Amino acid sequence: MTLPLVTIGLTCFNAQDTISRAIESALAQDWRKKEVVIVDDCSTDNSVEVAEAAAGADPQVRLLCHEMNLGPAGSRNSILANARGEFVAFFDDDDESLPGRISTQVKLLTEYEQRTGARFVACYVSGLRHYPNGYVKLLPAIGSQGTSVPNGPGVAQYLLTFREHEGWFFGSGTPACSLLARHSTFTEVGGFDRELRRVEDVDFAIRLANMGGHFVGASEQLFVQYATVAEDKSPEKNLEAEQRLVEKNEPYLRSIGLYYYALHWPKLRYWHFKRRYGRFALELLGLILRNPMRATAHLFKTGPRRILHERSMRKRGVSRSCG
Asked: What pLDDT is stored for residue 297 in this prediction?
């Protein structure tokens, strides 16, 4: 059996202290037929020099450098444009993947295709998020539990309005840093939206879902995410991107009467994060007045979980971060 080529795409921006670890974890994958494509997005530190050294030392590694900063979506599109692999997996420049990640994902995806005949399949892998002082959060993959695999427009509705589907497990959502899919799937969905500087991976998943995509997940914890603080991860940047994502889907959300809800729930999270509890209360009141049952159920389901998470972080002395 001839193994298909897998492209491991590594986006890089000002990651001189972590990019070597990410490259090494890509090269250490036990999938023999692979290439590693690194896209540097106009780093101002020594990231390019580190990546150039890796490319010079191993023919499996290629480095591409942007002439202007395009953000994560633009970097991923550059990877897709230059990928030679039948499959593409994305790694982040400050994360690390265990050696069996790619082989596990390719096996899971292809077996699911053969079993179901599904045309568009995205495969995610479970992982761990490490904070600087040792606090660890589990990141279970979408589709890695539950009685059936999330698929179709119901996934888009969840990502936009938080409405869950019985029997589906949404885990930690749809982060690109744990994603593998066929190159043709990325192409037919249209890649990533360069206008979004955050949540571009959620936008991709929404469009994939609306095309009938299936979201399978590996239960094995095969990547490690290291929580970092950066300007592009600020609460303000995150809220701005979430609002743009909602506005992009405004016609659909208005058709189901949930535009206001989808637009304002991220604001609720933002005011909580900023500890502006007066603004939080006003935002919550607006949500409850318009969608009393949905807002109340949503708050009671996610609120305690968030409080416990933040309490664990505070006990260990971890400052709050968007990712």
From this structure: 86
